[in-house]
Design goal:
There is one protein chain. The protein is an alpha+beta fold. The chain has one domain: Arc Repressor Mutant, subunit A, CATH 1.10.10.10. About 60% of the residues lie in helices and about 15% in strands. It contains four helices and three strands. It has a three-stranded antiparallel sheet. Helix 1 (about 1-10) crosses helix 2 (about 15-25). The chain is elongated and about 60 Å long. The N and C termini lie far apart (about 40 Å).
Length: about 100
């Protein structure tokens, strides 16, 4: 979901994706290369992400990933699931507070 969200803002190479997640989470989330690329490749196999070779800002050849139309739809599905999950967890946390003895 975070990779899809990052690509919503435009195409990125792998390092750019990991940096966007890191900086967007105030350094709390750090995506390692060994996790990032297998995840991006899975998203690509599902048709949610496409890739193309381009020149990076420092003139090096890099593979850039971008969101497909199918990926945009999937991101909406993932966002809905995330909102439902966080709501359920919040309700459970509040339920346990209500049931504590005074």
């Amino acid at each position: 979901m975070l990779i899809l969200q990052t690509l919503r803002w435009g195409s990125q190479h792998g390092y750019g994706i990991s940096q966007a997640i890191r900086s967007g989470s105030d350094e709390l989330l750090q995506v390692e290369t060994g996790s990032l690329y297998p995840a991006v490749h899975r998203l690509e196999r599902k048709g949610w992400v496409k890739s193309e070779w381009k020149r990076s800002e420092n003139k090096q050849r890099a593979k850039y990933y971008s969101l497909t139309a199918s990926g945009k739809k999937q991101l909406l599905v993932e966002e809905t699931r995330w909102k439902k999950l966080t709501s359920v967890v919040a309700n459970l946390m509040n339920l346990s507070k209500r049931e504590e003895p005074a």
